[in-house]
Amino acid sequence: MASGTAGYKQDLPPKGGYGPIEYARKLPRRGPSGYALFALGIGVAVFGYAQLFASNRRRREWWAEEIEVQVALCPLYKAEQDRLILRQYRSNLEEEAKIMEGVEGWVVGESVYHNKKWNTPQPVEILNLRPKEDMVRKVQGYTYNI
Amino acid sequence: MAEKPDTSSNSLYGASKIIADECRSANLAFLECKRDNPHPKDCVLQGEKVTACVLNTLRILEKSCPGELEAQSSCLKDSRMTFSECRDSQRELRRCWKRATYVEEP
Q1: Are B83 and A62 within 8 A, CB to CB?
Q2: CA distance A45 to chain B (A)
Q3: Cα(B98)–Cα(B64) distance, rounded to whole angstroms?
């Protein structure tokens, strides 16, 4: 729109001038309130703690179940182990009587201790007259993959 | 003597809950004897009762509930003896045991 006599276009303000400029401070209140935020945080924490306590309780029950199963089976193991030890001691005694026949001053089956209480035998005491594989199996057998 | 049942660790652990119920008195007697007498020769009678109870339980299970026992044993073997993953087979085994040992009240 060629206005004026010059015939060029000028960058002028719109008709009626510009509108009012809002320079006042404007901080709109939006989103949840402070109380609501606290409630949300505490709610999430309570929910998480409830899950944590429940899982811990469940894990303890599983552990107790494992122990209960082992307790149910351990008398069987101990009874069988006792019988094996007695059998092997008897066989060792007879072997010892045969080997040390005629050696003077040797009491067959004499305990090396002075008091009479039962000392849990080392593997050597039980297996010293058996082949080497038995000893290896007893000492290292549990580390093998069953 | 009846034939020996399968006493691998899988079978024993599979039947362990039922063995715990059935052999409770025998186990307790043996453990009390053991607490006072650590020598093996003192508790041989109680030990024989324990072994007899466990083997009888396994025999009954093998005769009456072979499928359920096998299911529980293989479930435990696959889940590395995790009892929480084998609740279904455990429930079936216990139901079968109750059916097998049901005694009519006169």
Answers
A1: yes
A2: 28
A3: 11
Interface of B with A in 55-84 (CB under 8 A): 81, 83-84
Tens of pLDDT, residue by residue, chain B (106 residues):
678 898 899 999 999 999 999 999 999 999 999 999 999 999 999 999 999 999 999 999 999 999 999 999 999 999 999 999 999 999 999 999 999 998 888 7
E strand or H helix at A20, and its extent?
none
Q: Closest Cα to residue B18, out of B58, B76, B64?
A: B58
DSSP conformation class of B41: G
Residues of chain B contacting A69 with CB distance shorter than 8 Å: 13, 16-17, 20, 83
A-chain CB neighbours of B16 within 8 Å are 69, 72-73
Largest CA distance in chain B: 45
**Gap between the Cα atoms of A9 and A6, Å rounded:** 9
Largest CA distance in chain A: 149
User: For residue A66, what is the nearest residue in chain B, using CA coordinates?
Assistant: B83
